């Protein structure tokens, strides 16, 4: 009896495999390493993520696929094309930066954050997140989604004896489990109608389903979209975000804000644009409305945080991330109306890369300020320039990038790219909604930026920069400045290769 799949292409699957293997090594090593040597586990994890990221380089030359059906090499479960590599770069690079933040956080809070368990869960989640963009069948997609999500629940609630942490983990868990259940129900309907789980075969067969199964198929498409809307924190499925970010250890909040979004959006792109292009008339309008609601609720929510002096910087960044999710949804919705879906998806990926770099940079500064101010209020950033000029300038630059203002040229470039995708697709009303939201966002980003340069109330607090935090700030700063100098490189890098 012949095998159902071809031989494994180990080079193609190297990035998620290395991450998973290092996670297992860390878990076993934790049993034998003394308490004084536990920090070595963190540096081993950082090295593993760096190695996994470097393994993307040999894959740049040509598309590679593995776990293909015998007799049909075009139908595979794992494909390393340009889209996969760009999202894996975002996931693994973002995880590497979050790991650098984690090294300092674990050193400061080692009594309540067990290092071995932390790093094993962190690497397991990163491995699932790296697997997801390469998934080309619905079963692998769901497995990757859960491998990325389940360890994240535990990471959010890992801080011992912290009520906020436990509450955040519970909210995150309940919302994510609901999303998974809804997605699985939708996928089962699609499978019942098409008889296959492979995305390319679903795209072919879903156009010719029996008339009696038409309603079942439409229901499956809608339920699958609803499930992924939970994962992307789109409104009205965003309610878990602010409390989860505030209750989680700060590096995990940073991780969720970038890698969590990359997972949700890459899954959404694969399901809609690759598997269900013939149902664009269903998911296109739905995503356009979701984009408008998400960016509006996110930005208004962030603006409302400034009603009190004690509002948290992390909570503000959480609401900001909801607003940014709305911008990320715009080009995916535009792909349903545009004649060039690849260009539209490239806009989403380009925006995600920009957002990932500068948002992780903002969280790195928040991690630094949080070491001296436990509550990490935005008011604690007043006079940061007097205490730490370079750090204040970096945070100001990151906030201006998120706002889309010079000198944050990469932020402006990304917003113009998304805006043009909406206009080219004939979604003028959505472009207007986006323009209004950009203006709303300017208010809270500029208020925070101005606060950095105001005179401090009392003696400025000196912030000592540990080496891992310095490395994270340097990497995000250099990347943001370099891309602002040559923003066209982002679009050139993000040619998706999905079509």
TrEMBL record:
Mode of membrane association: Multi-pass membrane protein
Name of the top EC class for this enzyme: translocase
Transmembrane spans: 12-33, 40-60, 85-106, 118-135, 141-158, 170-192, 221-241, 253-276, 282-304, 316-337, 349-369, 390-414, 426-446, 467-490
Its EC number(s): 7.1.1.-
Major location category of this protein: membrane
Function: NDH-1 shuttles electrons from NADH, via FMN and iron-sulfur (Fe-S) centers, to quinones in the respiratory chain. The immediate electron acceptor for the enzyme in this species is believed to be a menaquinone. Couples the redox reaction to proton translocation (for every two electrons transferred, four hydrogen ions are translocated across the cytoplasmic membrane), and thus conserves the redox energy in a proton gradient.
Protein name per UniProt: NADH-quinone oxidoreductase subunit N
Biological source species: Streptomyces edwardsiae
């Amino acid at each position: 009896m012949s095998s159902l799949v071809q031989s494994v292409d180990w080079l193609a699957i190297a990035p998620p495999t290395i991450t998973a293997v290092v996670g297992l090594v860390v878990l076993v090593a934790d049993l034998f390493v003394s308490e004084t040597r536990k920090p070595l586990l963190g540096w081993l994890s950082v090295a593993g993520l760096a190695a996994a990221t470097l393994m993307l380089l040999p894959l740049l030359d040509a598309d590679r696929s593995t776990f293909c059906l015998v007799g049909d090499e075009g139908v595979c479960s794992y494909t390393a094309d340009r889209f996969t590599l760009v999202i894996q770069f975002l996931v693994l690079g973002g995880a590497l930066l979050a790991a650098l933040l984690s090294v300092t956080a674990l050193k400061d809070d080692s009594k309540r954050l067990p290092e071995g368990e932390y790093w094993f869960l962190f690497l397991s989640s990163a491995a699932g997140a790296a697997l997801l963009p390469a998934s080309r069948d619905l079963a692998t997609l769901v497995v990757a989604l859960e491998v990325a999500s389940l360890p994240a629940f535990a990471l959010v609630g890992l801080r011992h004896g912290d009520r906020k942490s436990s509450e955040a983990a519970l909210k995150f868990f309940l919302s994510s489990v609901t999303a998974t259940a809804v997605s699985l129900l939708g996928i089962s309907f699609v499978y019942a109608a098409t008889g296959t789980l492979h995305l390319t075969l679903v795209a072919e067969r879903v156009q010719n389903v029996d008339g009696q199964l038409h309603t079942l198929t439409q229901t499956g498409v809608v339920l699958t979209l609803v499930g992924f809307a939970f994962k992307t924190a789109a409104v009205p499925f965003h309610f878990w975000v602010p409390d989860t970010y505030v209750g989680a250890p700060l590096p995990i909040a940073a991780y969720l804000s970038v890698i969590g979004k990359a997972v949700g959006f890459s899954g959404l792109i694969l399901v809609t644009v690759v598997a269900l292009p013939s149902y664009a008339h269903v998911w296109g309008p739905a995503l356009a409305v979701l984009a408008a609601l998400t960016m509006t609720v996110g930005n208004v929510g962030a603006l409302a945080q400034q009603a009190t002096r004690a509002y948290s910087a992390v909570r503000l960044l959480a609401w900001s991330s909801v607003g940014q999710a709305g911008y990320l949804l715009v080009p995916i919705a535009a792909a349903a109306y545009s004649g060039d879906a690849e260009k539209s998806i490239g806009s989403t990926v380009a925006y995600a890369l920009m957002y990932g770099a500068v948002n992780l940079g903002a969280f790195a500064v928040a991690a630094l300020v949080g070491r001296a101010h436990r509550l990490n209020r935005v008011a604690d950033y007043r006079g940061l320039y007097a205490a730490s000029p370079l750090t204040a300038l970096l945070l100001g630059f990151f906030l201006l990038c998120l706002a889309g203002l010079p000198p944050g040229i990469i932020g402006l470039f990304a917003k113009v790219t998304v805006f043009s995708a909406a206009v080219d697709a004939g979604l003028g009303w959505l472009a207007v909604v986006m323009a209004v939201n950009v203006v709303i966002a300017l208010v809270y980003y500029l208020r925070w930026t101005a606060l950095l340069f105001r005179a401090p109330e009392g003696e400025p607090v000196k912030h000592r920069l540990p080496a891992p935090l310095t490395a994270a700030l340097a990497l995000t700063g250099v990347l943001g400045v370099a891309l602002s100098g040559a923003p066209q490189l982002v679009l050139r890098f993000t040619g998706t290769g999905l079509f």
